[in-house]
Amino acid sequence: MAPRALLRGVTPQEREDAFLEYLYELEVSSDVLRRDPRGQSWLAPEWRRQVEADRRLQDALATYVHEELELFESVRVRADFVFTNAVVTATEPSEMFGAGLDPRFRTWIVAGAWALAIGVAYLMWAQLVHLLHG
Q1: How many angstroms separate the CA atoms of 95 and 85, rounded?
Q2: What residues in the chain have per-residue pLDDT under 50?
């Protein structure tokens, strides 16, 4: 049974589109693509004849094989252990400043800082009110 794209009256673009659809449905392994990039062993005989006769289909097949092999290689790339180590090192917990202090002492320090900030804010507000009503 010949695919619809091999029948007469089909434009070259439609034939190429049908061929690409056929290729993507095949799911050929990377080993087979490396061993037989021209499709002699895995293309259907009807498509093989069409590819041999049509330069557009030859180019489409070459592009398909190249892209599939690139895709297989991108998945097999090893992890960068230096990058992984850098991420792990950067995300290690670090000791906070003052974490070893007694909680009561730390509370007094924080309360004193807040009191100082409130006092400075009050002085600035008082100066502003004095200047406006002056």
Answers
A1: 20
A2: 1-2
Angle in degrees, 0-180, between the axes of helices 12-26 and 55-76, rounded to the nearest 10: 30
Q: How many CB atoms lie within 10 A of CB 20?
A: 15
Indicate the residue type of 90: A
- Helix, strand, or coil (residue 14): helix
- Identify whether the C-beta of residue 74 lies closer than 8 Å to the C-beta of residue 32: no
Q: Using CA atoms, how far apart are residues 51 and 119, in angstroms rounded to an integer?
A: 85
For the chain, state the CA radius of gyration.
36
- Residue 96 falls in which region: left (phi positive, over 0), alpha (psi -120 to 50) or beta: beta
In contact, 37 and 28? CB cutoff 8 Å: no
Query: The whole model's pTM is what?
Result: 0.53
Cβ atoms of 61 and 69 closer than 8 Å:
no
